[in-house]
Amino acid sequence: MDVNFRKIDIDQYDEDVLLDSELYEADPRDPAQALSEVKQKAAAVRSSLSKGDIVGALTLVLEDAPYGPNLEEAKNLNLQTLVSILNSTKATEIPGVVKALSTDAQDTLMKYLYKGMALPGWGDVSGSVLLGWHEKLTEVAGTGCIVRAMTDRRIV
Question: What is the pLDDT of residue 3?
């Protein structure tokens, strides 16, 4: 039995196929610019964490987060910075922190939580932390936050 037909990309023959570039505006920053901005944010986050300002640190990381196909290094550094914030937060402080975030920031946080759970090896290191934040975020923001994170094409 011939299985070569499975290797054919049938979308190349379809005129109505949607490309990712047609579904959302790409991040206008080039990779080097996005990476330098994320590095500056990481330094500001460390400063905020040393002062005990968790909400400020989270807001810094979540606003204007890099997204799109060509910014992998910046997106990974932003995720590492976010996970360091999540790891340094006490479980009793999480609901208050989540309530202080805007709806857009809550949605972006949900995207990062799912990204962290999806990466191999991250679940072993901080899986319980990510699940704890997911639980508290869902309690505060509702299931709409999950739906918005799953359907938004701007992948962080």
Answer: 63
